[in-house]
């Protein structure tokens, strides 16, 4: 029991010894570098792992913050790219629509008369195609000097004539209307007839053609100019059906209109013998387009 209470060296003595030992070790290391190997071992196996463990929480917080930031950045970039793609697709659609519209306008202008008539491009506002009324509404009216009976055509052929004129719009009767008739002739031989509407956008009926008339499937029919309503030599349709029933005086002849009565969006209003004298003169060799 007495050994438990034996006193060792005092604290002051132990401190002096340790300080002296430390000074000796530092001096020896400074002059002869004997502790480099021990320092390397301590750096590798003790200090570096401790430093790594101490930095783990800070690195983890930094990595988490960077990950969330990168993820949000990717989401924002992805959203921006989708918006840009959508805008690009809309722009491409608009360009495609404009390309088709320009193509239709070029076709119409290439189909305009070569005899000097004044023409005006108009757009369809509404269409009324039923068996009893085949009419369209145009966005041009009396302010553009549109007049009753004025012919309208599209890029492929005659469409009809103006039935009613308002200040900013007008109504046109299509050649397929049951009440419409247009003087025509066979382009191949000049045989004259009249094409009547049937109430169907893809059928016209040519009446009063004798059985013996020289007419064939595929013949082109054009305006004859008779009646002075439609200018001559405008394409109207093509013969698709001929019947010569026995006992009948005249043959039954069906033609298909060349104009796209149910599809055209733009038309040309043609000035031909208008009732009001036009203020602008167009030379015959240089057809014009009304502004």
CATH superfamily of the domain at 118-289: Rod shape-determining protein MreC, domain 1
Name given to the CATH architecture of the domain at 118-289? Beta Barrel
Tell me the total number of β-strands: 13
What fold name stands as the CATH topology of the domain at 118-289?
Thrombin, subunit H
Beta content comes to 25-35%
- Terminal residue distance: 127 Å
Shape: rod-shaped
Helical stretch tally: 2
Question: Helices and strands in order, then pairings?
Answer:
Elements: H1 11-32, H2 36-110, E1 118-130, E2 133-138, E3 151-153, E4 158-165, E5 170-174, E6 181-186, E7 192-197, E8 204-210, E9 220-223, E10 235-243, E11 250-257, E12 266-271, E13 288-289
What can you see in these coordinates?
The protein is α+β, with helices and mostly antiparallel strands and 291 residues long. It has 2 helices and 13 strands. The chain has helices at 11-32, 36-110; strands at residues 118-130, 133-138, 151-153, 158-165, 170-174, 181-186, 192-197, 204-210, 220-223, 235-243, 250-257, 266-271, 288-289. The strands form 2 sheets. The protein has a 6-stranded antiparallel β-barrel. It has a 6-stranded antiparallel beta barrel with strand order 6-7-8-11-10-9. The chain starts with 10 loop residues before the first helix and ends with a strand. Residues 276-289 have low confidence and may be disordered.
